[in-house]
Amino acid sequence: MTVMESTSVKVDVCASAPRPHPRPEGQDRYTISEVVAFTGLTAHTLRWYERIGLMPHVDRSHTGQRRFTNRDLDWLSFVGKLRLTGMPVADMVRYAELLREGEHTFEERQELLEATRRDVKTRIAELQDTLAVLDHKIDFYAGARRAPERPCA
Fold it and tell me: What global pTM score does this model have?
């Protein structure tokens, strides 16, 4: 669940705790450079996210400077998790669109996340198989170093 979703929605208590925000709610106005420092994303990436519709809700100051909130930081954290899953950007944008459309899109959002979850589980299984092969090879080489040399005949 993201902070953008309704507070009447159940909270996933198994999810890892979010990073603490640098500023309390209501005093949470961050410049793009502060968000870059806090998230590790580049300013170019943040502007791109806004341009493609992944973050269209970013507020602006009276001078036109972007002003991010704790809610934006939470959203960026969630987007980062989606990126780690390998979810295509188009699907992330679609998810953001569905989120903005409201509660009647819960089912479609769930389906999108479930498809991503299946992909992640497949990748995990592939990586576990790869890890087993690597462990086997490492054990082989460690054993070969311990084996006594064969006498020359």
Answer: 0.76
